[in-house]
Design a protein that fits this description.
10 strands; 5-stranded mixed beta sheet; 26% helix; alpha+beta; single chain; YbaK protein
């Protein structure tokens, strides 16, 4: 089991670590430096971009949110997500909305300890091996086996992303 001592870090990191500790699964904490891109984050975490998970917070309606785990090399396909949820309008939560909804700042959001919001795990997230996700604080990641992560966070797997940088046709 991992451990984390941060010398006075904000509650967010402690909450994420507490959530994973309570689950009893094996994990490890990876502390890394300042990054400006997901590619830099993957490099500093020493993990493939496809195994680095971004936790996106999407606003469904006023005060309603959903969390989506997206591999680092992919982005949300809004058409697929709208169809999956059966809604017409969606948007990314603002940084303030995401903080209020999850208790985590942008760049450190994780489904661990983020409340009871519904969770979608994109179907392209690898189903085995080590995955890396936010640890509740910027510069802190949690590395965990995929099966253990899925058991801890629950969620629904669905096809809701596209390769990053791919434009949707307008036909």
């Amino acid at each position: 089991m991992g451990s984390f001592t941060d010398g006075g870090a904000a509650d967010g990191g402690n909450r994420a670590i507490a959530a994973i500790e309570m689950s009893g699964v094996e994990y490890r904490v990876v502390e890394y430096g300042e990054v400006t891109t997901v590619e830099e984050a993957a490099n500093q975490r020493d993990i493939a971009l496809t195994r680095l998970l971004k936790t996106m917070v999407v606003r469904l309606a006023d005060g309603e949110f959903i969390l989506i785990l997206v591999p680092g090399d992919r982005s949300i396909d809004w058409g697929k997500l709208r169809r999956h949820l059966g809604v017409r309008r969606l948007a990314f939560a603002s940084a303030d909305e995401a903080l209020t909804a999850t208790g985590y700042v942008h760049g450190a959001i994780t489904p661990l300890g983020a409340g009871e919001w519904p969770l979608i795990i994109d179907e392209t997230v690898p189903g085995d091996g080590e995955l890396s996700l936010g640890g509740g604080l910027r510069g802190v990641a949690i590395h965990i086996d995929a099966a253990d992560l899925f058991a801890v966070v629950g969620g629904v797997r669905a096809d809701v992303t596209k390769a990053a940088g791919v434009q949707r046709s307008r036909s």
